[in-house]
Write a structure and sequence with these properties.
Elements lengths: L7 E6 L17 H14 L7 E6 L27 H11 L1 H5 L9 H7 L5 H17 L2 E2 L5 E2 L3 H4 L4 H11 L8 H7 L9 H19 L5 E7 L6 H12 L3 E5 L9 H15 L4 E6 L2 H4 L11 H12 L7 E8 L2 H6 L8 E4 L3 E3 H10 L6 H11 L3 E4 L1 H13 L5 H12 L4
Parallel strand pairs: 1-2, 5-8, 5-9, 6-7, 7-8
Antiparallel strand pairs: 3-4, 10-11
Helix pairs in contact: 2-4, 2-5, 5-7, 8-10, 9-10, 11-13, 15-16, 17-18
C-alpha cells in the first residue's frame, strides 16, 4: 500500500484544462505549455515513472495536445457514448436502489418505461431526473403560507410516484443531446395547412427520407433541401418533418442563434452541432436559410467562404458506424447555392411553391376557424373562383389576421383589396 504499492493510479479529471495544445493559449508565461511538457517527460521521458497508471477524462478531446495521445502515452482512448435503453435502465436502478430499499418508491413507477422515455439522457441527467422527482415528492409535504410548515410525518408518508417522474421529465431535466420541442413548435405555431399538391409533395418526400434514414444500412447520411420563394412556409415544413421523425436528437440551426458571431465562431458552432448529432443513434439537423448563414449579399456578390467550405464538409461527412443523420435545409436562392457548389451536397432538392389559384386561398380559409362567417365565405368563393394569385402562406396568414381586426362591414372588402395588392390577383 501507499509508496510500497506495485501500481499507483493518477486520475486527471477534465484533462483538457491543463493539457491544451501547446501554442494555443495566448499567454506570455507559457504555463500551459510547461505543464504539458512536464507531463510528457514524466510519462515516457528520461525520468519516466514505471509504476504509474495515468487516466485522463475529458469531453473535449479536440482541445488536448496531440503529443499526449501518441503511442506510449495516453494511447488507449475509449469513448463513452450515451447509454442505450438497457444502460439507462441500469442507471435508473442504481439511483433508485436506496428508495426501493426504504420502500419510498411507489409501485406505479415502471423504470423500464422511463428508460424508454429518456432517450439521449446521459448518466448525470438520469441522476438529475431522479433527484428532481424526489424534490417534487417532498414538496407535497410542505405547506407554503406566511410560515413554511412541514408535515411531521413526512418521512413516513413520503412516496415518489410516477407523476413525480413525469413532472421532472417534462419540466425540469432536459438532455443536452435531446430535442428542444419548444423551439421547433415556435416555427409551426400556426400548424401545417395542406393547401395544395406542393405541400403534400414536400411532406411525402420528407417522410420517405425519414424511413430511408431509419431503415437503410447503405445511406447513414441523408440530406434534403427545401427551396422556394420567400414566405412559402419552408421553415415550418422543415421543422414539421424533423418532429415527424421522432428522432432522439433534433437540432434547429439558424443564423438567428449565431447573431454577432465571427466567421470562425460560426464555423466552430456548426461543427459542434454536427459533432453532437453524431453522438446520437438517430439525429436530425435542420439548417434554415442557408443564404443567411453564408452571409450572402447579391451586391458584389458577397458571401463567407469559410462558412461555405465548413457546410460543404459537414453535409458530406458521414456519421460514425451505427449512427444515422438526416439533414433538412432550406433556401430561397437555389441558383446561388448551385453556383457555389453547395447544391450537390444534398440527396434531394424539393421545390416549395407559393399559392397560385383562388382555390388554394379558399382551402386555407376553410382550415382556419372563426375567420369569416358563412355569408362572407360564400362571397369569397364567388370572388376567388378561377382567380390567379401569387402569394406565400405566411403572407396570406398575415392578411387574414389583419382582416380579422377590421370592422365586420369592411372586413371582406379589405381582405380582397389586400389580396389584389399583395398577391396580384387577376
Amino acid at each position: 500500500l501507499g509508496p510500497n504499492s506495485g501500481l499507483h493510479i493518477i486520475i486527471f479529471d477534465e484533462i483538457d484544462a491543463i493539457c491544451k495544445a501547446r501554442g494555443s493559449v495566448a499567454s506570455g508565461a507559457g504555463v500551459h505549455d510547461t505543464v504539458v511538457n512536464q507531463l510528457l517527460s514524466k510519462i515516457d521521458g528520461v525520468d519516466q515513472l514505471n509504476n504509474i497508471l495515468v487516466i485522463g477524462m475529458t469531453n473535449r478531446r479536440d482541445m488536448i495536445d496531440e503529443a499526449l495521445l501518441r503511442p506510449g502515452r495516453l494511447e488507449v482512448q475509449i469513448e463513452i457514448g450515451l447509454p442505450d435503453e438497457n444502460g439507462r435502465l441500469q442507471i435508473l436502478n442504481i439511483h433508485t436502489s436506496r428508495l426501493r430499499e426504504h420502500n419510498k418508491l411507489s409501485s406505479d413507477v415502471d423504470l423500464k418505461e422511463f428508460s424508454e422515455l429518456t432517450r439521449n439522457f446521459s448518466g448525470a441527467e438520469i441522476e438529475g431526473l431522479v433527484r428532481a422527482a424526489m424534490s417534487f415528492a417532498m414538496n407535497r409535504h410542505v405547506k407554503a403560507g406566511k410560515r413554511v410548515e412541514i408535515d411531521p410525518d413526512a418521512a413516513d408518508k413520503l412516496q415518489i410516484c410516477r407523476a413525480d417522474f413525469i413532472h421532472a421529465f417534462e419540466n425540469d431535466v432536459k438532455p443536452a443531446f435531446g430535442v428542444s420541442k419548444e423551439e421547433f413548435d415556435s416555427y409551426i405555431s400556426n400548424g401545417i395547412i395542406i393547401w395544395g399538391q406542393s405541400v403534400t409533395d414536400v411532406l411525402e418526400e420528407g417522410q420517405l427520407r425519414i424511413r430511408q434514414t431509419v431503415k437503410s444500412e447503405m445511406t447513414p447520411l441523408v440530406s434534403i433541401l427545401i427551396e422556394g420563394p420567400p414566405n412559402s412556409g419552408k421553415t415550418a415544413l422543415a421543422a414539421h418533418i424533423a418532429l415527424l421523425s421522432k428522432f432522439p436528437y433534433l437540432k434547429f440551426c439558424t443564423a438567428q442563434t449565431m447573431l454577432g458571431f465571427s466567421e470562425l465562431a460560426k464555423c466552430q458552432q456548426l461543427k459542434k452541432i454536427f459533432e453532437d448529432a453524431h453522438k446520437s443513434s438517430l439525429s436530425c439537423v435542420v439548417v434554415d436559410e442557408l443564404e443567411t448563414l453564408l452571409e450572402y449579399a447579391p451586391v458584389g456578390p458577397r458571401y463567407s467562404n469559410n462558412v461555405l467550405q465548413t457546410l460543404k464538409l459537414l453535409f458530406k461527412r458521414s456519421p460514425p458506424k451505427g449512427r444515422k443523420l438526416l439533414i433538412v435545409a432550406t433556401t430561397t436562392y437555389r441558383d446561388i447555392l448551385d453556383q457555389l457548389g453547395l447544391l450537390a451536397s444534398f440527396s434531394k432538392v424539393i421545390h416549395m411553391s407559393n399559392m397560385s389559384t383562388g382555390q388554394h386561398i379558399l382551402h386555407v380559409l376553410n382550415e382556419i376557424e372563426h375567420c369569416f362567417n358563412d355569408d362572407e365565405m360564400k362571397y369569397l368563393e364567388k370572388k376567388l373562383h378561377d382567380k390567379k394569385v401569387y402569394i406565400g402562406i405566411k403572407a396570406l396568414l398575415d392578411l387574414i389576421e389583419v382582416a380579422r381586426q377590421a370592422d365586420d362591414k369592411s372586413r371582406v372588402g379589405r381582405f380582397i383589396g389586400q389580396l389584389e395588392d399583395v398577391a396580384g390577383m387577376i
